């Protein structure tokens, strides 16, 4: 079945450093969504990418969808302690009518 | 985005019992899903809740263990039957609409501990 992997599994950074998580799907996706889950919380929607090669920015966060629509990345510039949490990608394949979540990347930011 | 309410938010359950989780949305939605998140893990799709018909279960999940109802476009229930400690997880309802570009949003989850 479809698998969505994320690397790294964990990342510790000093506050102010950059952070990137990568998402790779075993199948071509129709779209991909990114979520952030704070410790003790539920996943909160960040963004959806639909087009091949699409790049979207939200303040310090930059999201990219690969040309082949099988991979994606989330880059955070100058991390802050508020960025702490686990970041998940979720891939949607047309016709399946469901989202498969990536394995997640847990980010810790050291002040 | 839709407002999603889940009940209960937390519960401690005895082994062998069953618990029903409710998911109420403040507007009609096309898609409703139930996910499980075991401690420290990612989200695993249990099933798609289909309005007026049987849910579509993912591999490894069966109706006898996780019966699901969806009587209308705003409400669904998930029952966790004959619970064991391995069922201790967060259970999350998520919803989406085609109008929102199939974006799915999550309720706050139901944190179940089985003792």
List its traits.
heterodimer; A: 111 residues; mainly beta; 6-stranded mixed sheet; 5-stranded antiparallel sheet; 0% helix; 55% strand; globular; B: 115 residues; 7-stranded mixed sheet; 4-stranded antiparallel sheet; 50% strand
Describe the 3D structure.
Chain A is an all-beta fold and 111 residues long. Chain A has strands spanning 4-7, 10-14, 19-25, 31-37, 44-49, 55-58, 61-65, 71-76, 85-92, 99-101, 105-110. In chain A, strand 9 and strand 10 (99-101) form a beta hairpin. Chain A is globular, with a radius of gyration of 13 Å. The model of chain A has no long low-confidence stretch (mean pLDDT 95). In chain B, strands 2, 4, 5, 6, 9, 10 and 11 form a 7-stranded mixed β-sheet that branches. Chain B has a 4-stranded antiparallel β-sheet with strand order 1-3-8-7, with no helix packed on it.
Write the layout of secondary structure elements.
The complex is a heterodimer of chains A (111) and B (115).
Chain A: E1 4-7, E2 10-14, E3 19-25, E4 31-37, E5 44-49, E6 55-58, E7 61-65, E8 71-76, E9 85-92, E10 99-101, E11 105-110
Parallel strand pairs in A: 2-11
Antiparallel strand pairs in A: 1-3, 3-8, 4-5, 4-9, 6-7, 7-8, 9-10, 9-11
Chain B: E1 4-7, E2 10-13, E3 19-25, E4 31-37, E5 43-48, E6 56-57, E7 68-72, E8 75-80, E9 89-96, E10 104-106, E11 110-114
